[in-house]
Amino acid sequence: MLVVSDMRPTRRHSRKIPATRLSRLTEALANYDPILNEYFFDRHPGVFAQVLNYYRTGKLHYPTDVCGPLFEEELEFWGLDSNQVEPCCWMTYTQHRDTQETLAVLDRLDLDTEKPSEEELARKFGFEEDYFKGSVSWWQNMKPQIWSLFDEPYSSNSAKIIGVVSVFFICVSILSFCLKTHPDMRVPIIRNITVRTANGSTSWVLDKAQTNAHLAFFYIECVCNAWFTLEILVRFISSPNKCNFIKSSVNIIDYIATLSFYIDLVLQKFASHLENADILEFFSIIRIMRLFKLTRHSSGLKILIQTFRASAKELTLLVFFLVLGIVIFASLVYYAERIQANPHNDFNSIPLGLWWALVTMTTVGYGDMAPKTYVGMFVGALCALAGVLTIALPVPVIVSNFAMYYSHTQARAKLPKKRRRVLPVEQPRQPRVPGKFAKTFNLKKMNRY
């Protein structure tokens, strides 16, 4: 509650900023009490102190004990522009905007693990009208339940079991994909080849040079891909929005990886006789991308991916400076190694120097290429220092973004989903007793200013 007493001595202050609420104060207003000679405004007194200081000095400061949206609402009530906040308070004042953007991003990530209400499910799956009419069909009742089982692992105990099964098949598929390339897990291809001897006759020999993965890996992949196919079909049929389901990046990886298995089967059946058929196995590497499906089961992976999205500008800047430094130092080391006699020169061209500059700036240092002259060593030292500085500068921004998303996620997890909201109700004006429940600004004291 705010009580402003005797505004007449401050008309010269209130008229400094025209077209605002204080500049339009007259005794004819409903807020004026002729008995007490006061103007009554039921507003936040802490913000009004900064508003009054703005009329006095022409500088608007932000109180740190007031939330940003509340400060903006108060400024809008008094007719002031929030862009007039002083530069010293601007960063502190705009923090709430970054917070609101972060909360909006977390809402899109769908990190809420609590079970939604029936009305929210009806709105999500598009049968809200049937829900209010009471004419919900059996399929409309089953569709959200099936979707929750296969897409929301934390919605129920049954969904957790299906989620564990899905993670199990993902891990088995990735493990099988890796193990079948081990030499001990492969069997030789035995086939008869006709060869011509020195005397002109022919004979049969066994060719064991080529190998194939053990047959057990084929059956493992068949079982895993049968589960993936069933999962994709069920999720597609029960999805609330088919277009969003198809356009989802994780789903694109999922059905392309599953489709590659069936394409591989067809090629092995009808194109195994081709000489370049082994090259087609390279495209099966898309199956390793199934690891991104784990984002449905881990909120930490979602936050990590969102951190890289939010830090796209910093990552682009990092790559730009790396490319710039690589080209510069590759050129310098090429010419530096040619100044002195160097019979063991590793830098025969600038493109070879690009690899050395990349390895040096990223502090990897394989040692396969190294400068031999003193000038080249000096260039290498500068390249290493520049790489450390280039990589170290954008990293704190990325770490800060991850910490921001993670802290807000933890706060949302502890915040109750349903909160009691107290709506302000207009009450009849009661006699005011200055002191405990009221803060009075007697503006007669401003005469000394």
Automatic annotation (TrEMBL):
GO terms for molecular function: delayed rectifier potassium channel activity. The lineage of its organism: Eukaryota, Metazoa, Ecdysozoa, Arthropoda, Hexapoda. Residues 160-410 form the Ion transport domain. It is a multi-pass membrane protein. It comes from Lutzomyia longipalpis. This is Potassium voltage-gated channel protein shaw. Belongs to the potassium channel family. C (Shaw) (TC 1.A.1.2) subfamily. Shaw sub-subfamily. The keyword Ion transport applies. InterPro entries: Ion_trans_dom, K_chnl_volt-dep_Kv, K_chnl_volt-dep_Kv3, SKP1/BTB/POZ_sf, T1-type_BTB, VG_K_chnl, Volt_channel_dom_sf. Pfam families: BTB_2 (PF02214), Ion_trans (PF00520).
